[in-house]
Amino acid sequence: MSDADAELRALQSRAYGRDADIGDDPAALRRLEDLESRRQPAPEPATAAPIAPLIDRVPLAVADDSAPPPAPTDPLAQVPDEPAVVPTVALRDRFSPRPRLAWFLAAAAAFLLAIGVTASATALARPIEPGVVATVPVDPDAKWHDVLGERAEGSVIFEDYYGLTFVRSTAFIGPAGPADGCLLAVSTKGLDSATADTGFGGFAMGCPAGGFPATVQFVIDEGYPDALRARFPTGTAMKLTMRGNTVEVRVDR
Q1: Three-state secondary structure call for residue 244
Q2: Cβ(203)–Cβ(224) below 8 Å
Q3: What does the pLDDT look like over 54-88, one tens digit per residue?
């Protein structure tokens, strides 16, 4: 045993033994601490942890107090551009500019429905014209009366209709010109007895205009022939339409 070991044991006996008195001897206590520190084994160096995994898992940030704070930027400018999204086939078909057959059918149905509604509304708003009750043809054997003036080409007299005589005269120039002629309604009795001095007392006259044929219309009163008033009561509206060599008769009671 070396002298140092012997000294250490003596000091330890004074420090840890039954009759320990080293607390009263500061020099001996410092010597004990010195010898014990020499006997303690040197600590083993710690094994360094791998650097790469730590770097991968823990991001390192070094604060630079001398660096100026970043300048404020527009929040909208920081939003990255969204990547272009390619629409799916179903989405492209749904918003395709090429209309489908179903669209055509729906549009056609809506169009026809609108036409029907418009036509119905127009028909309801427009009064229905009475139908034709008679047609009066040209009388090829009728005598042309001098009181009617010179007979121009195309002028004709129609058959008597309940005391009325219809005359088409191309000598009367209307809006459509003399070629189409105008329609004159007169009393048959008055026409037969008329002279150049007395006249024939015509009831009404109408001329064609554009695509509208010559038309005469009036309300029957006491001044019309008895035969006409016997067939149609007083107050009946009558419309005469000349179509070529025929006069169409319509009445509204």
Answers
A1: coil
A2: yes
A3: 445 544 444 455 555 555 555 555 545 555 555 55
d(CA 87, CA 85): 6
- Tell me how crowded residue 223 is: count the other CB atoms within 10 A of its CB: 9
Query: Tens digits of per-residue pLDDT, 107-157?
Result: 777 777 777 666 555 555 556 778 899 999 999 999 998 888 888 888 999
Compute the chain's Rg from CA coordinates.
64
Tokens of 102: 């179903």
3-state secondary structure of 159: coil
Using CA atoms, how far apart are residues 28 and 32, in angstroms rounded to an integer?
A: 6
Contact criterion met (CB below 8 Å) for 195 and 185: no
- Strands of 34-172, DSSP E: 132-137, 156-157, 164-169
Q: Could you give the C-alpha distances from 28 to 2, 38, 186, 225, in angstroms and in order?
A: 18, 16, 168, 170
